[in-house]
Amino acid sequence: MPLNQSCRFADKTERHGSTAANCMHVYSPRLIMTKQRVLQVSPLHPRNAICVVGTEVFLDIRRSIPRGATSFDVHGTSGVRVYIIYNHDFVKEPMSETRWPLDANIEITITMDFPSETVNDNKVRISYYGENGNEPIETAWLYLTCVSVSLDTDTNRTGVVESSEAEKTKWTWGPDGHGAVLLVNCDRDSLGSGGTDNTHPRVQSYADLQDMSIMILRTQGPSALFAENKLVLQVPASEADKVRVFHAAGNDSYYQYKPVLGPDKLSYAVDHASRQEITFYVEGLAFPDQDFSGLVSFSVMLLEVSNEGFPDTPIFTDTVVFRVSPWIMTPNTLQPLEVFVCSIESGANPNVDFLSAMSALVRKANCKLTVCPQLENRSDRWIQDELEFGYVEAPHKLFPVVFDSPRNRGLQNFPLRRILGPDFGYVTREPPKSQVSGLDSFGNLDVSPPVTVQGKEYPLGRILIGSSFPRSGGRRMAKVIRDFLYAQAVQPPVEVYSDWLTVGHVDEFLTFVPASDRKGFRLLLGSPRACYQLFEEKQQQGHGDAAQFTGLAGMAIITIDEILANETLRRSNRYAQNCIDWNRKILKQELGLSEEDIIDIPQLFVLRNSFADAFFPNLVNLVVLGTHLGIPKPFGPIVDGQCCLEEKVRSLLEPLGLTCTFINDFFSYFELEGDVHCGTNVLRKPFSFQWWNMIP
């Protein structure tokens, strides 16, 4: 192959650039990178070397300079780009046959743009000259074989693995970001296996593979070169317990896939066998958490094997980065898909009538209803406290994931035994049993709809956690749960004050409902102030003798006059209102809300042992099924044939296009310190917004 008669050069000044009148100005962004290798070139020993497409190799020609040599020139065959770099600038310009002084601060770099067809099919010649000679004193030869090695993932987040020019070693957020996404393989595609799929160090089924992200090793170049050298796939030791990589040892039958990287495997020598594409399947083993950012990297290294007993020499490394999908909660404004409720047919407080009313409401909302029978719930009706539904998402796959709370009562086994399954994942966090409190139940966990706060967008909303007043000694959600929720990053939590309540859950004083105007939702807050205003209005209208709890067997009634005259009750509700007002300020500030975004729902509370309970069924502890609301029936004072509390709530919510259905849960839930929301749980459609397009 003939040698080129020119090379390219770069100079920061005008002085040398102007001496070569026949040179073109060349700018090569490919050269703006760290040099991958340094090769020593000597006229005493011709050298064979490997070059990787697109990488820069520095030639060291000064270690064996012939005696009397004062200058040199360098030429390469057509597949080689040779650059003379001086003054350390990376704007390259071609030059004529110019001899360069050996005592100058000059560098030689080479690159190749295409892989070789045969071994040593390209070469570089360095000629050394004396001070006055026209013929070279000595000549050094470098024989080159170029290969292409690329580790590729779905860097562009399209669902397809393509070679990308994007920076693969970094993961960036936003619509213009790049970097692959990995799912925690926490569902159970094979019903005969126990636990989640990622607890098994083998592929369970073809469906199991679909939950994993694809990583492809692509190579080009002479097969003989790959046969004589090594390709090694690696994962950092600090990340190895967060992922597992599978590769098919034989054919593509799923049982042929074996783990090649993971908790006990940090590297894997790839069997190249003349294949230009080798596919790996990557599964996540862990969600982001306090000690794990969610980022995982893999590298492939090309190692040159020495025939002289020396250690293998690294030639080239390519690295890719994945981010594990966070667990994402779904707010009330998203479409309901399935409603879960427990059946309690025997015992002191059966819920047969409640279940019938919920069935009718679910039919109106066009949802699926799943009933957990008493044999499975073991008389535990508080399904909202037991679990929270969310989901995980990658460009190629999305599936729901149930988060199991550590309360571990009668429903303890329901999420794992009945919800975990094909394309339905499971996750939990377990604090020490002695540290579990009522605030660890997931009635104490909610999420807002999407909000914008002082120009900062939260397109997936913000998680709300009930916590203690800013003082020592109060109850808080367990640290391991809070750490998990904060680590998901895409729904930054807001801690509100719920420790003033006996049960201590956020769903006892707030909820969100959809709306077609403004921000697309309203925040509902329980309001003693609004309730007293309503009752005072009814008293002034001459209805002071209308009674709360009328029609409830075994319940003593109490009139509006008696409620308004009860100073102990009034003091209890001043305290409750102060606590709610404290939260109102937090929510307005952290969710970017105005007063027009908040609706005060009349509600009274009563203090018992310094903690508050609802005085009548809690009107904000409701279930949202699209535009259909299932609201606890308050059994309020009857005025003109109507419950004045129901009438007030309708007047506040129905103008938003919502339909209010009041459900009698008095004896089946309210007397047991809960209401409709506590006794139901809703699986919702995920956001259409893809989480990686946000900027946390």
Automatic annotation (TrEMBL):
Keywords: Calcium, Cytoplasm, Hydrolase
Residue ranges of every copy of the Protein-arginine deiminase (PAD) central domain listed in the record: 147-304
GO molecular function, one term: calcium ion binding
Location in the cell: Cytoplasm
Catalytic activity line of the entry: L-arginyl-[protein] + H2O = L-citrullyl-[protein] + NH4(+)
GO CC terms: cytoplasm; nucleus
Protein-arginine deiminase (PAD) N-terminal domain ranges (all copies): 33-145
Enzyme Commission identifier(s): 3.5.3.15
Active-site residues per Swiss-Prot or TrEMBL entry: D385, H505, D507, C678
Protein-arginine deiminase C-terminal domain segment(s): 315-693
PANTHER family named in the record: PEPTIDYLARGININE DEIMINASE, PROTEIN-ARGININE DEIMINASE TYPE-1
Similarity section: Belongs to the protein arginine deiminase family.
Name of the protein in question: protein-arginine deiminase
Gene encoding the protein: LOC102373175
